[in-house]
Amino acid sequence: MSKHSLIPLYPVADASGLEGGKIHVRLTEGRFQTLRRLISWPLLALFFGLVWVEADGTPWLLFDFPQRRILLFGTAFSWYDLHILTGLMISGASLLFFVSMLWGRVWCGFACPQTIWTWIFIRIERWTEGRASVRQRQDALPLRGKRLLRKILKHSIWLLVALLTAVTFTGYFVPVRDILPALTGSEVSLPLLTWLVIMTLLTYTNAGLVREKICLHACPYSRFQAVMMDNQSLKVSYDSNRGEPRGALKQSSSQTGDCVDCRICVQVCPTGIDIRDGLQAACIDCAACIDACDQIMHKLHKPIGLIRFASAEAANKKPSGLWRPRLFGYLAVLLIAFSATGYAFFEKKDLVIEVRRDRDSLYREFSDGLVCNFYQIKADSFQPSLTQVRVEVRGQDDLILQGPANLTLDNQGDWTAYRVCQYHPEGGVLPISFVFSDQLREWTRPSSLITNTDYQQH
């Protein structure tokens, strides 16, 4: 195999998913489907729990744009912490590249939201309309009677799940406790209602109607996955050496392979491909075909693994190894990104303070010997429990601070005016510090007090 064809992609003209026909997915069971549920259900719980579960009246995760912060498990991130969010994205991308090089598109098959919601909608479809074979036969029947009622029930449940998904997703930006009263009352705003309708229809369409078309035509990951893989990457693969030539069960003999051409691998595939045609861009590595084929092999008393996770090297009877420079490069980037992000997380700021001197009036002298400087102060809190700080000034004797003793941290971006004064100062530029404190901590910002014209000569 040449270096230019490490990941062969075979076009399949008769795959129902590629031809636009409706795919009636047959549900199956097995170890990989159990693993997929063990991954997808916690992710679903996390998706809903981050919004619906609150701590001290605040959701676990909230993109609070009015306050210019992101709340995560009681910790607030501001636009000053963009480097942390950037590090998280780099870490996630590095992890995806690393996993893809090892096991192919397992993200698509086991953890992608499109896949998770599609399987939920498929199970609703099976519960309301029956098994895949029944649904396929009924498609040719007139839409009336019980079949019409089943269709209405299915689409109603789909819309209900889609609405719940839309409300939850919106809850990442607007607290759910503010959304629900608006929906149940008559004061729902037009922008919120429009957004919820759009998100509900998108979820309903993506998971219920178009399904595999998103993976085939809209998802960019399926297009550049080959760049991240090599000959030793594990992919769902059909063992043609063992399975070919195919023969029906009644025709199987010593001259035929283990594949009995039952096509169950095609029936359970959510994208409608035939894995026996080779590696294809439409394959999402969900391993449903592996579980289905293993069941057939058990019934035929043959070894499992006719379809399995295997690399191109293994298919050619060549040894596979973990020592791959690019794989360790991904791992190195992943470890560096996670380490740097973790360090930045523990060094993040809970309070950001800006002290700005009033440039229009550097200082003012009064007849009684009082000299004052004018300042503008802005403080933004990125800790939900930090709502107010006390303001003091230190660094010189007998300093007078004129302005609010307590600064409310409402994160509205407003500046508050302060004056720092001193009677009969020594002259020149004197170092001072603004001290902001709550009951437990202090934050200090250095500044200076200009007292007379000696400043001009300084």
From TrEMBL:
Write down any Gene Ontology CC term: plasma membrane
InterPro entries named among the record's database cross-references: 4Fe4S_Fe-S-bd, 4Fe4S_Fe_S_CS, Cyt_c_oxidase_cbb3_FixG, Electron_Trans/Redox, Ig-like_fold
- The molecule here is called Type cbb3 cytochrome oxidase biogenesis protein CcoG, involved in Cu oxidation
Identify the Gene3D superfamilies for this entry: 3.30.70.20, Immunoglobulins (2.60.40.10)
Matching Pfam families:
Fer4_18 (PF13746), Fer4_5 (PF12801)
List UniProt keywords, sorted A-Z. 4Fe-4S, Electron transport, Iron, Iron-sulfur, Membrane, Metal-binding, Transmembrane, Transmembrane helix, Transport
Q: Which residues form the 4Fe-4S ferredoxin-type domain?
A: 250-278
Q: Which species is this record about? A: Nitrincola lacisaponensis
Write out the GO MF terms.
Answer: 4 iron, 4 sulfur cluster binding; metal ion binding
Q: Give the highest taxon in the source lineage.
A: Bacteria
